[in-house]
Structure prediction request, 387 residues.
Amino acid sequence: MLNPVADTVPTGDIVLNTARLIDGEVEVTWKGKLASSRFAPFWLRDHCHAKHSLHADTLQRQVDTFSIPIDIMPAQIIIADGSRNLHIVWKHDGVRSEFPSAFLWSVAQTEGREVAPRRLLWDRGSMGEQFPSMSHEQIMADDAGLLRWLSLVEEHGFALATGTPPSIEATQALAKRVGYVRETIFGGMWDFTANLAFKDTAYTPVAIGPHTDGTYSIDSPGFQMFHCLKFDGTGGESTLVDGFRVADQIRKSDPIAFEVLSTVKVPAQYLGDGVHLKAEHPIIALDHNGDYLQIAYNNYDRAPFRLPTPRMNAFYKALKLFNQLVNDPAYEITMRLAPGTALLFDNWRTMHGRRAYQGFRWLCGAYLNKEDFDSKLRVLRAGQQKT
Ligand code: OGA
Ligand code: ZN
Prediction:
């Protein structure tokens, strides 16, 4: 139950320049950095890194937040340890707090909030024929290989793994390299042919338009892995659409539709097979900075909901535009999933679908949680900093 009050320390050597009390706040500057930042005394005491306030092993908070005086003030502000630590002695009790300069710098950058990663939005033209891809061997070999593959997925919203042994076991091992295989109504590792084992279009040979999975789930699967283990027939190509690219297009071309799509929460449900799952998401969810967080779009699974008629009509108009763009070949890439090539994609960003097919098609795959993928990337990146 590691719950770090301290965020991961950023790269580079962060060295303090000045620290002083100004207008009741502690203002800090760093060597070689232009920006200064101000920290509230109460916040500083609450985030003290000294052993008495932050457990050295668990990194969990030890300080009793609720006994800190609301008007707490420093008696002394000291730049220490070769300017890599700030010490503050508190006026009311004489206790000494410590703060690594890198911790203060890190928090000052994003206020402790997650920020959207660097992403390359794509459409058919910009993606071209060369899809992000790595060999299964490299991904499985070491952390550096896995990090490169996951970074591709983070950047493009998907990546392929070539040379993956065409078995459920090997696909599972690849999925587990990333995170836990998620248990859902479809099982953990799932596989299907057109046998209608579940009441879902997946289990038929008909075409499936671009969508994200699990719109009926409060925490829609963050990532999905597909591996086609056998195909003997015609059709059945897979389609991918960068949902953030489409969202960006609408943001620029139709701000009214964008407002509707990013605000109206659309309920979805899975009813049958002994469950009744229900959740609601905006089609385009934004984070606290207005960056893209999650696309949740599956017109097949939308549940009944109503809004006042003018708003409802605005919703249908915006939905139509969204659907038109996600089905526009200009935004779509296609590929034939074949034995040996596994696909990992961001189900919060990249919509997927498949063409109708005739013949035999056997697909296996897994859902992964967003938090586990993100955690793996953080851990791999932190490990890389140390080497
Ligand atoms: C699905 C789905 C794609 C496929 O089951 O939700 O998108 O290739 N299937 O069968
Ligand atoms: Zn799907």
